[in-house]
Amino acid sequence: MGKTRPTHWPMSQFPVVDDCLWVGGMPLTQLAARIGQTPFYAYERRLLDQKMALLRGALPPAIELHYAVKANPMPAVVQHMAGLVDGLDVASLGELRIALDSGTSPSRISFAGPGKRPVELTAAIAAGITVNLESPGELETLARLGQEQGRQPQVAVRINPDFELKTSGMKMGGGPKPFGVDAEQVPALLRRIGELGLDFQGFHIFTGSQNLRAEAIVEAHDRSFELALRLAAEAPGPLRLLNIGGGFGIPYFPGDRPLDLAPIATNLERWLPVVKARVPQAQVVLELGRYLVGEAGIYVAEVVDRKVSRGHTFLITDGGLHHHLAASGNFGQVIRKNYPVVVGNRVLGAERETVSVVGPLCTPLDILADRMELAKADIGDLIVVFQSGAYGLTASPTAFLGHPPCVEILV
Ligand SMILES: *Cc1c(COP(=O)(O)O)cnc(C)c1O
């Protein structure tokens, strides 16, 4: 019985025994039989724990780590993460309910996102969580609803910074944005928070997502601390929360290197005494989604048919774009790249072939792997897409074509 790893995907933390992927301490085939249906997503507790331990070990202990629920809102995952992190960040009423169900103290839950409706703000006030304000209009609505409830809402200001996180996969700050309050408008908003008598907590600065370049994150942290400390002088009360966002990426494609945490940690060590001196009550928070859960999950679909079309072999599976939009290429991203994919029950496989793995949808975009070298697979074999723990099922058009729902399991 030899333990090996898929040589073309050395970053996967899932072990391989006798050429079968092991998930949750058992062969994938056994897990699939236990679930009783494909396709499914499986998330591994061990890997969630490992990633958190890695991060805690690398970063200064004074840094609080929050989990951004939208990355993977499966209640069991949120419940597990709640036991590992210092707080949860939600972006809708649905996520707020899941966060509260996890037993996390409302004082450790924050709510970000543009366009929060009165029903959401009302629930946030009633629960006693912190609302990250995204606009002056939202502040007025929140204050009015607070008055109606006879409660003092807790608020933080989400700042749209006057800089951008370089080479970030998705830019969410800098320039005109629907997210956050432009840095130059923040002083007026802070005055208004004081006038309205709201319970001011601090700042939230989120600059982007899926960044693998430590030096870009270090620079974003520098600019975020500078901006927050400058604006803290205008705050209606002491800064208690300084959420500098996240943006930590994970490797998906050949050539991607895992994020180097050391320079980020060194830089945070350098800033902590400065923060302590200038805003002594402020707790520095990093909020991460993808980085915490992305590598702990796989998507598994079964091969339903094999066909050769003009010399090209297709493996047709029961899963696809409707469950895993990101792996399919997000409805036609400019250059589609393959996620790491293996045949889970014959990972290395003595016989190899170049195939395209597709789903059952009637669109040429329904691709899980395009011309990839895999072990030679047959009907009934299990196709595994790695790096699928974040922005998978809930970020996919599950109603498209009306196939049965996908199962999720935490093992
Ligand atoms: C989406 C989001 C996150 C999580 O981003 P990741 O790239 O998954 O780490 C964190 N904070 C806010 C405000 C978000 O909208």
Automatic annotation (TrEMBL):
Pfam families: Orn_Arg_deC_N (PF02784). The keyword RNA-binding does not apply. PANTHER family: DIAMINOPIMELATE DECARBOXYLASE (PTHR43727), GROUP IV DECARBOXYLASE (PTHR43727:SF2). The lineage of its organism: Bacteria, Pseudomonadati, Pseudomonadota, Gammaproteobacteria, Candidatus Competibacteraceae. It comes from Candidatus Competibacter phosphatis. Its cofactor is pyridoxal 5'-phosphate. The keyword Cell inner membrane does not apply. Residues 49-293 form the Orn/DAP/Arg decarboxylase 2 N-terminal domain. Keywords: Pyridoxal phosphate. This is Pyridoxal-dependent decarboxylase, exosortase A system-associated.
